[in-house]
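INPUT
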Amino acid sequence: MYLIEKNNVMKLAEELAKSYDLYGPVIDNETKQVFFNKVESASEISLTAEIPALPPKTVVFPQIERITQYKYDKVGKKAEIAMTYDDRSKAIFGIRPCDLTGIIVLDRFFLGQEFVDDVYKEHRKRMFIVSNTCVVPFKQCFCVCTDSGPAADEGYDLNLTEIGDMYLVETGSEKGKAFAEKMGLKPAGDEYIALKKKVIDKSISLFEKVATDNKAWISRIMNRVTTGFIKDEVWKHIGNQCFECGACSFVCPTCSCFNIEDHNRFDGSTDRLREWDSCSFEGYTKMAGDHNPRHPVEDRRNKRFFCKLSYSQSKKYLRPGCVGCGRCQWVCPGDIGLPNVVTYIRREITE
Amino acid sequence: MDYKSGVCNFCGTGCGNYLKITDGRITGVYSSRNHPVSKGRLCVRGWHLHEWLMTDQRIDAPMIRVDGSLKKVSYEEAVNFMMDRMSVYKGKENKEIGFLASPRSSNENNYLFMKLARGVFKTNNITLDSESGHKASLNVLSEGTGFAGMTGSLEDIAKTDFILIVGSDLTKMNPIIGSEIHKAQMSGTKVVTICSRSSQIAKLSNVHLQIKPGSKKVILGALAKAAISSGAADSDYISKFTEGVETFKNSVNSLEPADIEALTGVQYSVISEIAEELSKSSSAMAFWSTGIAGLDQDTVSYIYDLFLVAGKIGKEFCGVNPIAGIANLQGGYDMGAAPDILTGFQKINSDAASKFEKAWNTTLNKEAGRDIYDLLADKNSGLKALVVADHDEGIVRYEKEIEALDFVVYFGAYDNPFIKHADVVFPVAALVEDNGTYTNTERRVQLSQKRIEPFENAMPGWKLFPMIAAKASQNWNYGSAEDVFKEITSLTPEYAGLTYAKLIDSMGIQWPCNDKNPAGCRRLDAEKAGRKFKFAPVSGNYKTPSATAEYPFLLIRGQGEHFWHQNNIMKKSYIPKREYNATLLVFPEGYVEICKEDAKALQVREHWGVKIVSGSGAMKVSVKISDDVKPGTAYVPYFIREMITEFLLEHKSDIGRGEDAIIPVRIERV
Ligand code: SF4
Ligand code: SF4
Ligand code: SF4
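OUTPUT
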């Protein structure tokens, strides 16, 4: 544990920018929307900005990225193929606990199963992560229900917690420790364990008043979702509201569906692209013969919630798939963001 | 920051977005939380705008046709070739030359295109592509109220008390408007949908009036009649703010409850109840889709008159709201891309024309022109040359007629089937390669800023069109798209108070924006309109198509989210294209939706092939069994060009009637 004065904290980011591409929360001047984006200079980053609209998953899993480039020479019948993985070293500065948990879930999906995804691995390999404790929650948050905040307990190199006019800097890796030492940070006394706990308790106590958009006690419905004892009418009520836009998957820090496409370039070469996809799309799971003639939309919807909320799926991620960020709620043209679905199902249970 | 704010260019909702730009290329899109219309939402199309904008299927150089094939040339050569060849055709008296404008082009480009047609070629034969329904709606609103646009606001949907949706499925056509209506319904607004099919929006409504196909006018007339005869109609409002109610009363009074029930299949008591709720609600809005599958002018007139009877036009949270299917359909009309109007719906045969003559320093032909599709359909029209901008529809209709023309000029950014018929092709800078304003369906003028350099040095409209005018010795002097906009605002009263600076600082401003309303105008205001609202003339014709022993089914059609407007641009995306293909994979020949009972009677099952036979044609499609249609109704989505469109083309005159084009058919097992 170390300490750094509030007005010096960005020095950490400046130092990281020397050896990494630096990413962090940035506020758009025009509309005040917050993005998690690459910055030219550390000064663009805001540690107090609200939870970014754009999840940091874009750093490790961009919306659309080139993974291979090839050119076929028709005359010589030869193909030139180049793998074009993005292997730059990246530092993410100021990631919120829920989103960090999201990256941990993505790690388990892309790296933790039989198959290791090389593209993802390259993004992730040389990464330096600095997380930021939420000393006050935001309106849309419900990480306290999904065990993913308001403070991170794993996955970071450094973790920042604002305490008075200082930031408490915890190290989570050798790399983090070495960096803290290099920066000559002042060690923090043991009293800071209790001080941090106080800050976190305060934050948790604020949820009731501040985090009013969503409540989703997912533990109470996981059993139901896993066993499938949910009435057809409930799924139908949910399915009727799905506009099949895909947004819930795109904005979700743990959604990992992707699609591969070939983009023919004007110069005759081809880019193989990987891009975000969504289980809400008919074409994502479509098989010839139309296997789901009965309730196609409902079936696809209930798949998403099964993925986020069932025990069987949680075994893969070692935790529930939802990290309580609330993004799917505000992007949904229907009214079926995950927190609302939890409410619909709970309502059914209590009835 | 890689994310730059922008405006979606697919449908007329005009959702706000952010485009991600890395190394001068578009690499993503994200939704805009603080945008007043979309509030963080986008539909499946909007979430894939970047895929379309990334495409390399572009026009990379000007081309002219020499000995049958297209040859790349400089802009200068292409302009010379065009002007040389065009000089033999007469635009005067609206002969020989026609202009087909694009509902996706910016206001600036549409304005210049219109100026080229009228100022340089002296023709008023100019039509916005894929229109019909929207112009019809604007005609009704402009005649009746003087306001040629939606009288309400999308932002007020959440606050209105009662919503009436007539016809097509807004959740598919303009999903974010559908979403706004859905959310209003969830928080207490009463939503009533009139539609022959149980569409998603119908399912999300409180009441779905599943009328017999072709009986919209009957039910709208019946609602008005019920409101009047029960005394629920707002008589104070009618006498204070409207004129001409008597004629309308007479034409709905002839409807008898028994006939209404027989024609619509809905009980009169249900109709009365809804009429009363509509009239007594504190505020109400009507919505209908316009564009190619939109309602005809007569049906729109009934909606408008019904809302006058109910006293729901020009009041807070009220509105009669035509919904534009394409990004700048409203803006295209605002820019005068129609045979009879200049910008801001100023009539070409009015005094306004002299204002334009003075500003443009030329003389104008003041006789209204003809619709391009009419000219193409009419073998004796004498149309010889056609100038086309950014065509979207894959020239489904009239391909043969276009092929037969003498001379075709095409302006556009993307590869397009029109090019194979063109004699001259000009690349134009695409969306975000130039500044441009777009006006959404609620009159919101939004600036889409230049974010990347044009593909292969394609010229922006403000450079290219003046080059052409210069060949005709006209001096158009613009240094930017903004200069064009300044000219527009100087000639268009509704736009008078708008500037680029104001638009950059806002997320769009709703016209009229002028001295009186410097921040724009959310809605039409009866108190301040300075005139009475006129009831629109209606036909009083309640004839509905009827099934016969020979043709026992009534065929209706609709559009979908992915297979939208024949897809010229959707096919340049990945995910929406895949979704379209997924439907094709299961139903390679398209499908017809019928209900279980009918399928049983016909002895067909899901996926089986059937032949649909009408008085003038036949097509083969697969069966899809669905609870969404009633017995005796058959529904075909209008998306597979090769099959369904060919069949529908045989019914050109029915298609002209818009959404109420009902075709009696027989279904045969094959
Ligand atoms: S399911 Fe929704 S609330 Fe949960 S992590 Fe994903 S986007 Fe956030
Ligand atoms: S955001 Fe909502 S409407 Fe869109 S796919 Fe997800 S659940 Fe469906
Ligand atoms: S509703 Fe229309 S404007 Fe909005 S995202 Fe979809 S296509 Fe674009």
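end of record. Chain A has a mean pLDDT of 90.
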